[in-house]
Structures are given as structure tokens and as C-alpha cells.
Amino acid sequence: MNMPARRSLLAASAAWLAGCAGPRVDTRFSAISQGPRIDLVVLHYTALDFDDSLRVLTQQVVSSHYLVDVDPPTIYRLVAEDRRANHAGISAWAGRVLLNMSSIGIEIVNPGRVLTPEGERYVPYPPAQIDAVIVLLRGILARWGIPKERVVGHADVAPGRKQDPGPLFPWKRLADEGLALWFDEARAASLRPRFEAALPPARWFRLRLAQFGYGVAELENEAFDAPLRAVLTSLQMRFRPARHDGEPDAETAAILAALTQP
To answer: Which CATH homologous superfamily contains domain 185-260?
Structure first.
């Protein structure tokens, strides 16, 4: 077919398709109940080296939007931000579940918890790698209008099941950059004596944890059971990493109160 004939056929096909397009879509009205599909960022460590992390995240069912390597610090985009990545699994935050559908996942190359002659320990994050994470986060939050309160860890959305990004992740540094939430340390210190005198009941912890965003079941339950202790462990790993045993002590209560009270 020569070029003029081909162009004529394409034009005729376009005209036919236009005639079969159906009713016109009217866009004059807009619902007030709406928001971006992406409204959460979940941070992970890989627990693998770079080569294995890349293989798993590109060739298996699990995936993430970004992978941040360590030497040299390099950001790899593996899934477009407007597409779903399978990084959060069974998860919940602020009343929402199935967070793969509404979040961006960032995997950071880090071994996580390793066995040493002195016992198990977590591996620190090199500052230059965190610099790269900060640059990446700043762009994501700006593009999607995500507030700092909605940057969380995998352990936050899947307490008990996941521990990443672990107690050595520098949440305070992200907070200082305006990219994550931190608590008012002076206020927590002033509240602590009250909780040392009388520790709140389990129901108080459950309600406060749920208010902050954690998926906490049985809010009326007055038992410090294993599920509640798992959530407390996640909170402590993030805000009181020196001790994250899930014990409901006065310092944990003060931090939680500072995070949730006006």
C-alpha cells in the first residue's frame, strides 16, 4: 500500500472510531471526597546484599518502587510510582489495609539483623546512603503531596510480622529534614513522671496506638497480650530504639502521649 492510500485508510479508521465512541464524558463536576491514589511511603531494609536484592525485587512476586544501594549510594527505580508494587504484604495503617494499593515502597540495601560472635545485632546505615534516601523521599512527597506523618516503616504497618527498617534506622534525621514525624522530646520528658507514678492500662495504650495509626485490634481489651506487645515493639524500635522489648513502661507511655495528645 502506498503512503497516500495508507494515510487515507488511517483517517477513515479514526473517523469511524470517533463515531463509535459512545456518550461524551462530561467533566464539569468534581466530587469533594477524593484524593491521590498514593498517600503513604513505606520504608524497608532488604536483609540481602545488592545483587540478591535486585534479583528478588525484579524476578519474584515481591517488588518495590525503589531500591537504594549503599556503595556507591545509588537509587534504582524498579516500578513506576503510579503502578502497584508488592512490598507491604498484609498491612494496615490509619484504618486502611492492603497498603500495596496506596503506597510507594522503598527498599534500602541493608543486612538488617545479623548473627555475630557477640550475638544478634542490627547493621547501621551509612550516612551517604541515608542522604540518598532523603533526596528520594523529598521528591516523592513533593510529587504526591504526602505529609511527613505518612512516611512509615514496614514494622509500623505489619507489627510482629516485620522489623524493618529496624532500630538503627535514623528516623530522627528524617524528621529533622521534615520528611518524617518525631515526638516532642521535652513534652515526653515532662509527662514521664506521671506515668512512672501510675502506668496507664492496656486499653489506654491500644487507643493511643490506634490514634497514631497502628492497626490495633480489640481496643477495649485490657490485656497486655502478644499482639499489643508487638505493636509496642514497633513503636519503640522507631522512637526509643535503645530498648524495644514490647514492655509497656513509663517512657513508652510518655512518648506515645506526646505523639497523640494535642
So the answer is: PGBD-like superfamily/PGBD (1.10.101.10)
In words, the CATH class of domain 40-176 is alpha beta
**Type of residue numbered 80:** A
Is residue 210 within 8 A of residue 204, CB to CB? The reply is no
Query: Read out DSSP for 138-201?
Result: HHHHHHHT--GGGEEEHHHHSBTTB-TT-TTS-HHHHHHTTSS----HHHHHHHHHHHHHSPPP
Q: What is the pTM of this model?
A: 0.88
Q: Is the pLDDT of residue 162 over 60?
A: yes
- 3-class DSSP state of 211: helix
- Sign of the torsion angle spanned by Cα atoms 251, 113, 182, 80: negative
Q: Which residues pair with 139 in a beta bridge?
A: none
Residue with cell 549503599: 70
Question: How does residue 22 score in pLDDT terms, banded at 50, 70 and 90?
Answer: confident
Residue pair 201/253 in contact (Cβ under 8 Å)? The answer is no
Torsion, Cα 26 27 31 37, to 10 degrees, reads: 120
Hey, which residues are catalytic here?
107
